[in-house]
Amino acid sequence: MTRKTVRIAMNGVTGRMGYRQHLVRSILALREQGGLDLGDGTVLWPEPVLLGRREHALREIAERHGLDHVSTDLDAVLADPDIDLYFDAQVTSARAEALTKAIAAGKHVYTEKPTATGLDGALALARLAHDKGVKHGVVQDKIFLPGLLKLKRLVDGGFFGRILSVRGEFGYWVFEGDWQPAQRPSWNYRAEDGGGIVVDMFPHWEYVLHELFGRVTSVQALATTHIPQRWDEQGKPYDATADDAAYGIFELEGGAVAQINSSWAVRVHRDELVEFQVDGTEGSAVAGLRTCRVQHRSATPKPVWNPDLPATEVFRDQWQEVPDNTGFDNGFKAQWELFLKHVYAGAPYHWDLLAGARGVQLAELGLRSSAEGRRIDVPEIAL
Question: What are 160-210's pLDDT values in tens digits?
């Protein structure tokens, strides 16, 4: 085996997602397993260069994990010819400018979403990357979750027959920050800083629906701010100017209808923080982060509506668990592996900046639908 070291500039690793999922559970996990086997006698050894604004925080992370390279100078890092790949997990408002610089410098780019604050910016990134000939990918982690991988297995196997509808519930109660600290950063609730649940979650719903059931052809949404005041990391009150809940209806290519509720102001009464119910002519399924249950047409009970009598059936017991049948790795790590194989071994990969732009488009049109109070068509986009 030949070991090939690749230096990856990782911007935003002091944040929750950048640190936990991308650095620790993906890149460092690859190092712990001895690198990434490319299948041609080469093992890829990722060497992260931690990039950000707070040098002391970067150095603390580097020391904790035995890493050598940190920087607060984006331009200097991008000018380094030994760095092949740039990764971005910054706040949304800072992402497009940094990605543009990285692409212009000839670096391959891998990024969190949304890729930009608007469709024009997202398409500009995709076109620039295409013109520069660099490899580019966008994190689309939820389709790598065990529950959704099982759901895709059912779709691919024809379990549902004709799919009629998809219903999704996502969210949890994010504390306001006054008497208990909030679980999410305060910028998430300020529109001027790129916050809002629509721009955060609609890009996820776009690729989940697109990959599993078909392209979104129209959107009708209501976005609202249920909690108008919150408290920041310093305990100071601030006005929440971004939406913290969104209720969306999406028409899909092929005729299915999806309805997805997203909220940071809902208390959880379901098995997992996100669940999707898919109903088809031949069967139904309910999938979460890890689990998936099914009910086939042949085993569907015959409930009778009678509000005068207590229910005698335990409806949850009438569903069958879908087995794992395989081992599931961390979804973020799995996609990192695919992207690295794309860059360094020429493996196919389609979750690119154009796919990311579709997510930005859906968020933009969702907000417009809410503001105008109407259903809006979602046109196909291209480079």
Answer: 999 999 999 999 999 999 999 999 999 999 999 889 999 999 999 999 999
What is the rounded distance in angstroms from the CA atom of residue 105 to the CA atom of residue 109? 11
- What's CA 94's distance to the chain center, in Å? 18
SS3 for 300-342, per residue? CCCCCCCCCCCCCCCHHHHCEECCCCCCCCCHHHHHHHHHHHH
Report CA-CA distances (Å) from 142 to 86, 177, 252, 343. Answer: 22, 28, 19, 22
Q: How is residue 183 written in tokens?
A: 């679980």
Q: Which tokens in the block code for residue 45?
A: 């050894």
Per-residue pLDDT tens digits for 248-297: 999 999 999 999 999 999 999 999 999 999 999 999 999 999 999 999 99
Residue type, 56: H
Look up residue 319 and give its two tokens: 């569903």
Separation between Cα atoms, residue 110 and residue 351, nearest integer Å: 10
Residues 6+ away with beta carbon under 8 Å from 286:
275, 276, 277, 278, 292, 293, 319
**CA distance linking residue 271 with residue 289, whole number of Å:** 9
**pTM score over 0.85:** yes
